[in-house]
Amino acid sequence: MPEASGSEVADESDYSIFENKAGLAEDMKFLASMPELCDVTFLVGDTKEPICAVKAVLAARSRVFQKMFYQAPSPQRKKEPAPKENKIRLFLKRSSEPLLNLQNAAQQRSGFAQQLAPIQEPNQHHTVIIEEFEPDVFRQLIEYIHTGCVTLQPRTLLGLMNAADYYGLEQLRKACTGFVQCCITVDTVCALLASAERYIQYKCTKSLVHKVFEFVDEHGNEVLNLGSFTLLPQHVVRLILAREELRADEFTKFQAALMWSKKYCDSNQNQDLKDVIGNFLEYIQFHKIPANVLMREVHPLGLVPSGIIVNALAYQVRVVSEITMELNTNTFSLLVLFFFLLLLIKIPSIQSRSLDIL
């Protein structure tokens, strides 16, 4: 390999590359924050919150925005079969060809002029309505496009991931996907599930929700005891309680359903607590809750029908009977008699019930 000449070494020492990316990012962030310096305003979300941007920057960073602002839609015309013409129509057409040729030439000149004209005036300020994303999410997207930097947060992560995918920002989408692995914690899991409700129609949501549910299954008791659990939509709560993979005891599931129902009734005064919690009872296996907990914590609330509690206790009696099959008949009979005397004392409504539940 030939050695570098002295002149080449000298040339290399004559210059150095100076980069100030942080300063550039700050200046671009300032640019996007000044409406008078921007040429497009997005009205975002249900509140139509205004978010300003520069079209040229958007178009340079995203092909979706480039097509939105600078590419004219190409008209597509369907080809129709030419109608058959008789001799009279053919004669009339030939006699009127000079006039038609003049009209067609004028139309072609007019159409060509329209194609050369810009889609919109370059100095015109445009307004675009964005209903798909929340204002905080879209603001982060615009910040990333202008500066190349953005702070990823669990609260807006799912929306930003889907926005990046929607507008063709692949590097941002990959960054969000990578951040998912480390941001799913007990403190953030409910916020992620709540945000998934808005973006359920996007493909990125499905992969994230799957990972979140896997985390919920592993940390069931902790998640169900969170105060933020009450902020989840009702169908998400039912979905969690119904999961067979959920590692949570049944009494904790009942407490979580009760906590959610009370919170819901506080916000909806016309709703009855018993009716609301009734939507979750089918997902709770009451026969797995110890009898003393059922009688002391669940039954006095009057929210669970007595029939469900009786069936749960009867199931436990059957389990006890299988365990005590080796005991003598007298001892087992005394045990059963004592158990049902306890039921009669605690739940008077079952006194009239048949004792054939065994």
UniProtKB/TrEMBL annotation:
Keywords, in A-Z order: Membrane, Transmembrane, Transmembrane helix
Lineage summary: Eukaryota, Metazoa, Ecdysozoa, Arthropoda, Hexapoda
Ranges annotated as spanning the membrane: 327-345
Keyword Transmembrane helix among UniProt keywords: yes
Annotated protein name in UniProt: Serine-enriched protein
Pfam families: BACK (PF07707), BTB (PF00651)
Record domain BTB: where: 38-154
Native organism: Apis cerana
InterPro entries, per the entry: BACK, BTB-POZ/Galectin-3-binding, BTB/POZ_dom, SKP1/BTB/POZ_sf
PANTHER family registered for this protein in UniProt: HL07962P-RELATED, SERINE-ENRICHED PROTEIN
